[in-house]
Design goal:
mainly beta; five-stranded antiparallel sheet; about 40% strand
Length: about 400
């Protein structure tokens, strides 16, 4: 599809796709839409969040949201939920603190992820329309980024999966020193402390999945573009092992993992890596770095950018995420991501997916489509096992 074709399809209308699936391109007034999140509220309403503007890192990037009420035939008109004219606001997610839903997101100047702030605000849903309150800044160091769902620790503390975009004085952020950490709150998100994950340089976008008893596993995107990595907690999230590779390739792009009602783990991702493609770009923000004369950060790991972000696949593990032998393609394209531009047709990525399982066993997925739109797909129960109608 061309950017013009995609724009014409961005109505939010649900349509019947192959194998019994439902599909929609979420409505947005912005030419760039990226980093989808999806969650189900208590009444069954689905909420999708993303960031939109002209180009990732630009100060016109804001958080948007849309809803799909139970039985509705289309996603609602989008609502802008943030608007900082000085910072690029990115990576939104919702979390419930026991009193109500809160929106959390990042806010950075240009491509300087090491100068990012984290913000939170109360969320309301009135007549199917999502709304946001006044923002507050979280008391965590600059450079803390988020992407994964919050989880309760064994002792009741709130765990916020974080990746640290570590600043190097006088040098430009490249991702070379990024590590994983967990934000810990004992007062439902009012105050936070930070706990590092050992041996995690290059392991980012931590996604925590509770298992049985006190066991938890976490999965990571890799700056090195090699494999999805995994770590384990045996004490309910208090301590974590160092990340180790799974059998799923990773292209230095986002993943998402949930535990299904049958006990299996489901991961949505692009199972490609630097070993499967020679495509490379200088950095994530090379299109907006003009005028920044600082040298790139030295040392650390060697991030690899530009590996194609496709196909988009659903992968299943029956051994707590050590391996994911069952893989099925949700959507496919060339995956080209050597440019973040969403208007000239060069970008073909299918990326940054999020998923959840419905009460009826259907799998709901939201993801970036060519940087132009957020696409939603509902996969019928049993689709991953080949049982769809």
């Amino acid at each position: 599809m061309s950017p013009k074709d995609i724009a014409a399809a961005m109505t939010g209308q649900l349509t019947q796709g192959p194998s019994g699936r439902l599909e929609a391109f979420l409505p947005s007034p912005m030419v760039q839409n990226h980093a989808a999140f999806i969650e189900r509220l208590e009444d069954g309403t689905l909420v999708s969040l993303w960031f939109g503007g002209t180009l990732e890192g630009k100060s016109d990037i804001s958080i948007f949201g849309s809803t799909l009420a139970p039985g509705a035939e289309a996603w609602s008109a989008p609502v802008r939920l943030s608007d900082d004219p000085e910072r690029s606001e990115q990576n939104p997610l919702l979390a419930h603190n026991g009193l109500g839903w809160q929106l959390f997101h990042t806010a950075q100047p240009a491509g300087n992820q090491d100068e990012c702030l984290l913000r939170a605000r109360e969320i309301t849903l009135t007549s199917g329309r999502i709304g946001g309150g006044e923002p507050r800044i979280l008391d965590l160091p600059h450079g803390c980024f988020i992407r994964g769902r919050f989880v309760r620790r064994k002792d009741g503390a709130w765990m916020m999966p974080i990746f640290r975009c570590v600043s190097r004085p006088g040098q430009r952020w490249t991702g070379s020193h990024d590590t994983a950490a967990v934000g810990i709150s004992h007062d439902n998100g009012q105050t936070w402390t930070l706990e590092e994950i050992p041996g995690s340089i290059g392991s980012v976008h931590m996604t925590i999945v509770p298992l049985d008893g006190d066991r938890m596993v976490a999965f990571y995107r890799r700056r090195q573009s090699d494999f999805v990595h995994r770590s384990v907690s045996e004490d309910g999230g208090v301590t974590w092992s160092a990340p180790e590779p799974t059998d799923v390739p990773n292209n230095n792009s986002s993943i998402n993992v949930v535990r299904l009602t049958d006990g299996h783990l489901a991961m949505v991702c692009n199972p490609t890596s630097a070993a499967t493609s020679s495509d490379r770009r200088a950095s994530l923000y090379d299109e907006i770095e003009e005028g920044d004369d600082r040298p790139d950060a030295s040392g650390g790991c060697k991030p690899i950018w530009g590996v194609p972000r496709a196909p988009l696949s659903l992968c299943i593990s029956t051994d707590e995420g050590r391996t994911f032998p069952l893989r099925r393609i949700i959507d496919d394209s060339p995956g080209t991501c050597l440019s973040n531009n969403s208007e000239d047709g060069r970008n073909k990525e299918l990326s940054y997916p999020y998923l959840l399982e419905g009460d009826d066993g259907a799998i709901h997925v939201a993801y970036t489509y060519f940087r132009r739109a957020i696409k939603y797909v509902q996969l019928p129960k049993g689709w991953i096992y080949g049982e769809e109608a």
